[in-house]
Amino acid sequence: MAERWRQRPVTAGQASRALHREPQGESGATLVELVVAMSLFATVLAVVMTGIMGISRSTVRVQGAASSQTDVWEVFTTLDQQVRYADAINLPGTVGDTSWVEYRGITAGGGERCYQWRYVSSTGVLQTRSWLESGSPSAGSWSTVLTTALRSSTASPFTTLAPTAALPHQQLKVNLAVTARGDGASALSAAFVARNTSLASPGYQSSTDKPVCNPTANRS
């Protein structure tokens, strides 16, 4: 049995073929194949990056639009709460690149408070301030409620609507729009009714009517 499993001697022919046999495992890709593979990888990577950038831009646009809508809603709510209890609204006016409007409201203690809004078209800033009518407007500092994202629509930023027999109250109409990174706009076009006014209330009737809150001195 031992002789049966004895290793057989290697012949000269077998040794020659073994020496000239190509090494196993050393075959690889050619330079052309590597270039093609790298080109395909670069193409796939470019497509993926383009998709990621598109998703990022869409996310920014959605966030910007949501932010502008929130800003518009806050301005709408503030105006609605203030104008609703006003007892007089002045005729809006323009000084240079700034549009102005004032109205007078009744405080919880029964006093009279002036509210003033201004829109600067050159910078797109909307601001507001208030003060007791018996005091000075210098006591009320300006608060910026919308910044340069704001732009005026084709209509005037502030207009007043005439009271009628059917609706004997002064109304303030605001026409503005807020853009979000130049993509679309959130519009604010609404009429606010001053329920404490009447056909005889001061401020609105004409440019010669006695206004409230001294706009001649305070629109500067």
Task: Report what the structure shows.
With 220 residues, the chain is an alpha+beta fold. It has one domain (59-218). It has helices at 12-20, 31-84, 215-218; strands at residues 86-89, 93-95, 98-106, 112-120, 125-132, 143-146, 150-152, 158-161, 171-179, 185-193. Strands 1, 2, 3, 4, 5 and 6 form a six-stranded antiparallel β-sheet that branches. The chain is elongated, with a radius of gyration of 39 Å. The model is unreliable at 58-65 (pLDDT under 50).
Give a concise summary:
The chain is built from three helices and ten strands; from the N terminus they run ααββββββββββα.
Write the layout of secondary structure elements.
Elements: H1 12-20, H2 31-84, E1 86-89, E2 93-95, E3 98-106, E4 112-120, E5 125-132, E6 143-146, E7 150-152, E8 158-161, E9 171-179, E10 185-193, H3 215-218
Antiparallel strand pairs: 1-3, 2-3, 3-4, 4-5, 5-6, 7-9, 8-9, 9-10
H and E string: HHEEEEEEEEEEH
Structural class: alpha+beta
Give the radius of gyration: 39 Å
Low-confidence stretches are 58-65
Mean pLDDT: 76
Strands, count: 10
Beta-strand residue fraction: 25-35%
Helicity range of the residues?
25-40%
- Give the tally of structural domains: 1
Number of helices: 3
Q: How many strands, which pairing sense, and closed or not: the largest β-sheet?
A: 6 strands, antiparallel
Shape label: elongated
Distance between the termini: 120 Å
